[in-house]
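Fold this sequence, please.
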Amino acid sequence: MTQADKAGQLAALHVKGRPLVLYNIWDAGSARSAAKAGSQAIATGSWSMAAAHGFDDGEAIPLDLIETIVGRIASAVELPLTVDFEGGYAKDPDGVAKNAARIIKAGAVGLNFEDQIVGTGALYAIADQAQRIKAIRSAADSLGIAVFINARTDLFLLEADKTRHPDLIDAAIERALAYQQAGCSGFFIPGLLDESGIAAICDALTLPVNVMVMGGAPERETLIGLGVSRISYGPGPYLAAQARFVEQCAAGLAGA
């Protein structure tokens, strides 16, 4: 398949009632393992990719290195590849567009793009984030790739008190509608675990909605019933793999 074909395939995999499940990876080796396990698409996780290469999350891993890793993953598997692009490694739309073009040229056909101002614990104003999304869409269009822009809101991650999450649903929907008008392809709501809140967002939007598996998240069948179109695992797979490695390494060192 061409890269354009892969972009179309990735978009088509987002279906209510039959969600795309993405067990997030961090390098070419884990991508091949995910493909061998039967994955329909490959998705990096920013935390996982950074940790696997000795960096903290939050755009600490250099963009040059991300570009190299994305290229290696894209050449290692034939599946559509979506990349966690964090905040785009720039604040201004022109900078975001240039950086997005680099990752697309490396082989990505999807980008997770968050509305948190990286390192501040604050969100971009809706209008500002919409301009940043428009810039990515324009960059993708100029390359002839219908990139799946998964617009992530950090409204729920930044509010530690989950009892207040229902009060943020309308604000999330407002952001989703603005981001959709700007050209995003999907809406990602990490941190929201409340079933009624997830359902409300799915019902209010025509965009595919992405939920992240984490402690306290609804079961998969429940998420399907709520209208979710994409389920991802974030850093969970990397943490599980490393925990298992430590266990096996300790056993080996002890001669077990």
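The mean pLDDT is 97. The longest strand covers residues 110-114.
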